Amino acid sequence: MELPGPPARPPGATRAPASGLKVMLGILVVFALLAGYGQWQHSRRPQTETFTIVPAPAVSPAPSPNED
Description:
0% strand, single chain
């Protein structure tokens, strides 16, 4: 009695190339590092930032000497 062999793959199903998977993994690592850096910068920022707005002095325009 002869046993059947493994089923053949459908013609459209192929594996992704290893170089493409490495590139995607590298991009994922870069995004993770950027997210970690953003969180680190956020934690370094002071919790409350205070500032004072000083209005500019209101100076009335003086008439020019040529005006009558």
